[in-house]
Amino acid sequence: MRLDIARLREAREGHRIGIPLVYRETTGSTNDDAMELGRQGAEEGTTVIAEEQTRGRGRLGRQWVSPPEKNVYLSVILRPPIPARLAPQLGIVAGVGLVEAIRNWVPEAALKWPNDVLIAGRKVAGILVEMVAKGDDVDFAVVGIGVNGNMRIEEFPPELRDTAGSLAIALGRDVDRTELALAVLQHLEAEYETYLQHGFAPVRIRWLDRAAIVGKEIAVRHGNDEVRGVALGISDDGTLELRRADGQLVEILSGDVFLDERGGARN
Ligand code: BT5
Description:
Elements lengths: L4 H8 L8 E7 L2 H10 L7 E7 L18 E7 L9 H16 L6 E3 L3 E4 L2 E13 L2 E11 L19 H5 L5 H22 L1 H10 L7 E6 L2 E10 L5 E4 L5 E4 L3 E4 L8
Parallel strand pairs: 1-2
Antiparallel strand pairs: 2-3, 3-7, 4-5, 5-6, 6-7, 8-9, 8-12, 9-10, 10-11
The protein binds biotinyl-5-AMP.
């Protein structure tokens, strides 16, 4: 079933995020579309949503599997008055909003740094933040969110069948994608409002509360590098804090986190 765009527009009328809403049946990447709109001066909150992406992107040029009418793919333009170096905070803000939205369906959903959402160790959602700076400040950022709603295991490519999941897989029934998109926009807005009014501190606390990795043994890989240790939390800049076995504290800017088997997650 298609998204109910009239319902989405009506529900977001008068809000900061989710309106104007640009709808695409199919597109390369909603992030590319939103970046283009941002460059053209589109206002904060402008959102692009699609039924399908033919070139859905993850971080570091990776692919985001985005078949038609199964999941939610959306990108939001934000224009926060912050220095460009703090842009990674936006991913954390979005991650907290995203996990809150997903918890309406699956209360045990949790975050994995930087901002994947996991259910029973399977990745059900990811975030891609891209930013354009003006001098030292953020001109605009695009927060791209992909949530697997109704994908079944056999619909994922074979290499993702052990690590990817969806709300439908967790629940054993389909979800209403319009409701899911709406929840994502609502919770993203709530978290973003908190961030604008009170700064990063309260968002950081909520992130830590919903994180699957804090206190656990993890490995962080970036290219051929690997750092192992206990995840302590995130810093004010959104970097990951780790304590290695030799006691040294390390701050990680970017990479992929792998939880120990004993941590109960595979991804
Ligand atoms: C992410 O990247 O998790 C960010 C994903 C952001 C997607 C949204 S959809 C709307 C907007 N438009 C876009 O073009 N992108 C955004 P990363 O952490 O790099 O994870 C990518 C990795 O996750 C891939 O290399 C696969 O291993 C795995 N993967 C790909 N598609 C997946 C899916 N649908 N569900 C779960 N895992 C997936």
